[in-house]
Amino acid sequence: MKRLICFILTGVCLFCGCGKALPESAESSPKTGSMNLTYAGQFSVDYFENGCAEISIADGSEYLLVPEGISVPEHPDTMIILQQPLENFYIAASSAVDLFDGINSLDNILLTSTSEQNWALPHVREALQSGKMLYAGKYSAPDYEMILENQCQIAIESTMIYHSPETKEQLEALGIPVLVERSSYEAHPLGRMEWIKLYGLLLGKEQEAETFFSEKTADFEKLSLSEIPEENKKTVAFFSINPNGYVTIHKPGDYVAQMITLAGGRYAFTAKDLHVEENALSTMNIQMEVFYKTVKDCDILIYNGTIEGSLETIDQLIEKDSILSDCKAVQNGDVWCTEQSLFQQTTGASDMIYDLHAVLTENAENLTFLHRLQ
């Protein structure tokens, strides 16, 4: 307990600037512009003449990013201050990690809430194996002493933290700013990937993030969906089967369903089918009988290999439930499976849409995230 108190006092001094004279405050300056965002709607950034940037998150949180060498200007008490340089990140939102890697900033992540065996991304596994990145415990019960001992400067949490609000409160009490990323709430799948621009801003790599995003979305923006007439669009079911025999599917407002639509297909489940709202997000479990009734005539089945493990053959799928053998897609051999890295690889959103489009147009060569079951 004595050690923890010492760490807490050290952390408070670190984040309050104890013992370090700051330069004179930057003069209040006018707004000079805003971050250009094409798809993301869950955050915004305004720039000011003094070099500061105001970050607004859709949950109502506001942050003032202050450049190195500039002291904190006057600001509302509710605004959270982020003083650059920001280096020692604690990331409890796994979807953010791949975006850091996309701009060669994995070294800035010192701590993660996902253990090595639960990472499918090779660069992250290597960082944990080498000790460059450390596992700090589950997001809801992190090792606070480890976080303080490693002089963490900011914590990036997913919206799961709302289920454990005391953890967020404890981090803030220790002087660690917490940013809750909401990429999973983006209406457009590429909006999730566009959060790389926010992380680029925090890291002083805004141009690198802009370039990366432009390059990754180029293939998507070249897709010609007009080559698929409305009456010829294929229906697609995306699912996995859990050990209890229930089928896990994505709700029709979720980004997986949106990717299928953007690729030129039709998602098999409607809000009416599932008795949910049109814009309902995330996943849900349904009984196999209900699932089969909807998908038996689907053109394409895609098994989500990121949850219950990847499949290689149609026989492996049928072993999970023999009723699937009667499905049109199974009989036609149009059954696919995702690679396990799909959902952790946030930078791959445009590649996945491109893969789906290739499958829908029967031009499935050199795919990134999908493979056909044999």
Largest sheet: 7 strands, mixed
Q: Please identify, by name, the CATH architecture of the largest domain.
A: 3-Layer(aba) Sandwich
Helical coverage, percent range = 25-40%
The proportion of strand residues reads 15-25%
CATH secondary-structure class of the largest domain: Alpha Beta
Integer-rounded radius of gyration: 23 Å
Average pLDDT, rounded to a whole number, is 87
Distance between the termini: 58 Å
Structural class category: alpha/beta
Compute the number of strand runs. 17
Shape: globular
Number of domains: 2
Q: What is the CATH T-level topology of the largest domain?
A: Rossmann fold
Would you identify the CATH H-level superfamily of the largest domain?
A: Nitrogenase molybdenum iron protein domain
